[in-house]
Specification:
The protein has 9 helices and 7 strands. It is α/β, with parallel strands linked by helices. The protein folds into 2 domains: 49 residues, RecR Domain 1 (Helicase, Ruva Protein, domain 3), CATH 1.10.8; 151 residues, Dna Topoisomerase Vi A Subunit, Chain: A, domain 2. The strands form 2 sheets. It has a 5-stranded mixed beta sheet. Helix 5 crosses helix 9. The radius of gyration is 20 Å and the shape is elongated. Bound molecules: zinc ion. The site of zinc ion has 8 residues, from helix 4.
């Protein structure tokens, strides 16, 4: 027999699936909602449902948006010959908030991580290839790809993988690939980097 009602257990289970949340924190969060007099649980539920219904991934860069093609990709004010490859949508937010980058983005959806069982096939490398090919078809201009994965072992491995994918295009001189400078400390998370650190990392980007 379970001590807790099934409905409470379900919420604890859902919270414990969140990144960085263990069973104890999940239980604490659940009790917070149980005790809350302000219908916080309903508000959270409604916000999650609304987010689920209204948001999707941009068909071009895979950033989160409420349109088919996001505002960044459809903007004519931005440099369409530079694409910054990031791990997650929050990295796009970090760059946009810093106001230091005027190109486009591509969100990979993570990094290759054998330790966590994440292989290349689970990330958007195929979509990245298609995107690059379509940009090259549309414009004669040389395309710059800036690999902005986090400065971690996985981030570096992912950068090498990207380099391999585009080997032919690089040799043909159609693409130039660079990597964010290591002004970012190893193990740092891009989404938490401050404006100056991001700016230095972008300006000091090096060929790979
Ligand atoms: Zn987009």
């Amino acid at each position: 027999m379970s001590v807790l009602p099934k409905s409470v257990e379900n919420v604890i289970n859902e919270f414990s699936k969140l990144p960085g949340v263990g069973p104890k924190s999940a239980a604490r969060m659940t009790y917070h909602f149980l005790r809350s007099p302000n219908k916080d649980a309903s508000k959270l539920g409604e916000s999650l449902l609304e987010m689920d219904e209204k948001t999707k991934f941009c068909v071009s860069c895979f950033n989160v948006t409420d349109q088919d093609i996001c505002d960044i990709c459809s903007s004519t004010q931005r440099d369409h010959s530079t694409i910054c490859i990031v791990e997650e949508p929050l990295d796009v937010v970090a760059f946009e908030n810093s106001g230091i980058f005027n190109g486009l983005y591509f969100v990979l959806g993570g990094v290759i991580s054998p330790a966590e069982g994440i292989t290349a096939s689970e990330l958007r490398f195929k979509e990245l290839e298609e995107r690059v090919k379509s940009v090259l078809n549309e414009s004669e201009k040389k395309l710059e790809l800036i690999v902005a994965t986090n400065p971690s072992l996985e981030g570096e491995a992912t950068a090498s993988y990207i380099l391999d994918i585009f080997d032919t295009f690089i040799k043909e001189g159609k693409i130039h690939i660079s990597r964010l400078a290591m002004g970012l400390p190893t193990g740092a998370d891009l989404e938490y980097a401050d404006r100056l650190t991001l700016k230095r990392a972008l300006e000091g980007r090096r060929d790979i």
